[in-house]
Amino acid sequence: MLKRLLMATSLIMAASGAAFAGEQYVDETGFAISGYDPVAYFDLTQAEPGGAQPRAVPGRSDITAEYNGATWAFASEEHRDMFTANPEKYAPKYDGHCAYGVAQGGKVPANPNLWRIVDGALYLNITPTVVGFWNSDISGNINKSEGNWTSLEAKGASDKSWKAIADNNGTYAGTAPIR
């Protein structure tokens, strides 16, 4: 019975042209990208590679939407509505996992304050040290990530916390989403 249901769901998605995403990374907050607003990144002034990016904008726990099996938080209803109209535009690549980790062949968590938008797509990384590796060859790393993602996408999401990594100390203040 379950097998038939899964097959039917796959056929419906294929017929509708819907893209199937892998399992979204959700950490101990219970929210995608740790409760930060995915739309807000596109309003921030991005630093040049090597410079510190502005901090991610915390979402609010009372302004949410569901996408890719996860709850997303937003700083405003306008951002929530923009996201629900086109989630693929705003959701980070690789289901919120570290883009450099995917380039290296694995799924690891991502720190929402270590981000970069390239060609209209949001990429997250795990630690400041990894951002240095990512920045050393952004286009090459994206090419590697895209090549690896096909085989990684179906694997389960990381169950690790980016906050547990000492290299992330100082990369965030407080918690998101705002309650």
Describe the protein in words.
- The chain has six helices and four strands; from the N terminus they run αββαααββαα.
- With 179 residues, it is of the alpha+beta class.
- It has one domain (21-163).
- A hairpin with a 2-residue loop joins strand 3 (111-118) and strand 4 (121-125).
- The radius of gyration is 16 Å and the shape is globular.
- Mean pLDDT is 89; it is low at 1-20.
Work out the strand percent: 5-15%
Mean pLDDT: 89
Rg from alpha-carbon coordinates: 16 Å
Major β-sheet profile: 2 strands, antiparallel
Count of strand segments: 4
Query: What is the chain-wise order of helices and strands?
Result: HEEHHHEEHH
Helix content: 25-40%
Q: Which regions are unreliable across 5 or more consecutive residues at pLDDT < 50?
A: 1-20
Give, in spatial order, the strands making up the sheet with the most strands.
Answer: 1-2
**Termini distance?**
41 Å
Number of domains: 1
Helix tally? Answer: 6
Computed structural class? alpha+beta
